[in-house]
Amino acid sequence: MKTSLSALSLALCLASPAFAEEAAEAPSDNNILVVGQKDAPVEIAPRGLTVSLGAEQFAAVNAFNTEDLIKYAPNFFVRKRYAGDSNGVPGFRGTHSSQSARTLVMVDGFVVSNFLGNSFGFAPKWGVVGPGEVEQFDIVYGPYSSRYLGNSMGGIVNVTTRDPKETEAFATAQGFVQPYGQFATKHDYYGYAAEGGFGWKQKDGPFSLRVTGRFFRNEGQPMMWYGLVPTTGAAGTAVTGAVVDPKQVEAIAAGTGLANLPPTLPGQPAQALPAVPGSPTNPIFAAQSPARITQAQTKLKLGYDDGAVTGQFLFAYWHNEDRQTAPDCYLRDAAGNTVCEGRVTIGGQTYTAAGAVFSKTLRDEFLAGVKLAAPIAENTTARIAVSTYQIARSDGFTSNGYVTGRNNGAGTLASQGPTGWWTADLAIENKTDRRELAVGVTGNAYRTDQTRYTLANWTSDAGKAFSTRTFGKTRQLSAWAEARLLLDPLTVTLGARYDDWRAYDGGLTRLNTAGAPVGNAYAARGANSLDPSLSFEYRIDDATRLQLSLAMATRYPTVGELFQGSLNGDGSFNANSFDIALKPERSKDANLLIAHDFGAIKLTGSAFWQRVRNTIFQFYGFNQFGVSSSTYKNIDLTRQFGFELIAQTQDWPLPGLNIDANAAYIDSKTVRNAANPAAQGVQFPRIPKWRVNANLRYALTQAVEGSIGMRYASRPNTDLFGLQRGNTYGFTSELFALDARINWRMTEQLRVSAGVDNLTNNRAWVFHPYPQRTFLVEAGWRL
């Protein structure tokens, strides 16, 4: 694999996506353009490495969901475990796949990043957009524009949806299947989707309207496996069927497994401990139920453009159901009956089987936003945007065990609401041929409120009894300014951003020993910061461009990192499960780019560096009651640097052949961690040393196009100390996937496509399994 992969990486290191210009700015000879959109301007300020992807790239992707459209972008990934996964966290360069609060994601300029928390459970709300309505994806790496808050420390993603230019309509239907096998689980998982909409543009008038909708259903493979826990005492039910994972045994024997972590230190629990329910170090007796996902989405976009004043109103609704009601239990007793819970005996050793549960999660969410731009003086434009994202309902029902789940017995309910956020942005821009000035103010407010209940019947909230409630708020007010000086052939951009942040109204309510609610209130706190930015762009000649970008950024703790406390197994408050005193992350960033256009081939080289003080990291462990817990803590200092080679070929080396490819090297380390020095000098978790993404497109005929995509990431560390390295469940492994697709335009309006993701059926893990080989068929129609 390594030899063939190295050869393939070298062969494909020729091409990629693009630098482009800001939507409000006219194209300039001083702007670096890499690939993707050559004519359409990007919708976000292109400071640092900027990639813009459009229809040509999208047509070559098997897009089960919207975030799939960007899976070949340079040094970029989305932690997507199965089609319909609502925990798809994007990651840039050396950003951990659970550091969701370091990426700013927007739809048509409205924030859909879930900054209510910072983990895989707070992924952007990709589902408010269907893949069929995306016009382009713009991606900016790093916080090099003062226009954007410090959550852009990793990068910025903006999804632009289509504006109708005339009366139009479209419809797309998809069907897909994943033949899956892992341990004793062997099953075919099916899914399908239907998407459609219409657009209307007023003839000789300023108004436009676009209405779209999508229905999606899929069954994703199991995400977890449960291990038997050795115990003593009386023998249990004699069973067979447990599975020992040889790769897990091999990792532990090599001294790199979960059983070899350094001792727990105050304030930083171990990443995981062996011999607990659900630990992958023990014989596996069951797989978590496949996730049966149902999603319904609809969106309305009303536009106005009279040539001077532009405006837009956007409303998107997303319904999401996740039902997991069929755990795959491997154990059988002497009569052949399924055993999934209790004391069991295998070969004279007694174990406890526990952890397999039934669950369902129901969510209703919506995005609403309005923006307006109008001239207010000569060469001066004012822009305002206001939006809100609200989680109207989020109810997670879970049984207390396998037997109670099967028999509709006791369970718990985690209910959110009111939960969501508001954002507002006002900017004034003045532009001439020689300079561009912009000033603005922004604000946001986030609120979380989650209540847990105990249930007599886990499937219903009837008769629910209060257990705990956690709640809190944050708000951030900001002012920024940028000046762009066009000193041909040199362009200089200077900026600064001031942020004032506050966390308040936080607390936890629980039941005391007498069964009465009692509360823990957290004191309010605030902080502020001033962060500068500076960028130089230089046109060496007509084919060569050079850019240096420098910036500082401050990422404040999210409301969830501060206020989402939890309880111990005996119901007492766990004081280490949160940290109201978390310090904000503060980064210093640099990015150097050089791009040269050879004609048929365009190459871009990039070098990046980032140093972060007080990195916020989520630690996992098990408390004294065997209950899984997590806590957020600051790491004193981390740093990353790396290099990227990005290229594009057009009709080369064969007519009709286009290649986008990129390769990246990342060195990301913990430099100082006084709470546990064992982490110092170790590659940061889940950050590979190497990433290679590529996409090849070839026009077989005028009507038929084929494409091949590749995704590769070398094996990273799983934990902060570099001791957990393996290629199986519970670890973060090497990733290698080849994808293929073919499109046939039967008529100008009708297209049929077929594709396969992970053609070689490579098994890869991000603790949970990535998808195995998946087949897709698709038909699309456009008016």
TrEMBL record:
InterPro entries: Beta-barrel_TonB, Beta-barrel_TonB_sf, Plug_dom, Plug_dom_sf, TonB-dep_rcpt-like
Record domain TonB-dependent receptor-like beta-barrel: where: 358-759
Pfam families: Plug (PF07715), TonB_dep_Rec_b-barrel (PF00593)
Cleaved signal peptide residues: 1-20
Localization of this protein: Cell outer membrane
Domain TonB-dependent receptor plug: 52-156
Broad class of the protein's primary localization: membrane
Mode of membrane association: Multi-pass membrane protein
Superkingdom of this protein's organism: Bacteria
Matching Gene3D superfamilies: TonB-dependent receptor, beta-barrel domain, TonB-dependent receptor, plug domain
UniProt keyword list: Cell outer membrane, Ion transport, Membrane, Receptor, Signal, TonB box, Transmembrane, Transmembrane beta strand, Transport
PANTHER family hit by this protein: COLICIN I RECEPTOR-RELATED, TONB-DEPENDENT OUTER MEMBRANE RECEPTOR
Family affiliation: Belongs to the TonB-dependent receptor family.
Official protein name in the record: TonB-dependent receptor
Taxonomy of the source species: Bacteria, Pseudomonadati, Pseudomonadota, Alphaproteobacteria, Sphingomonadales
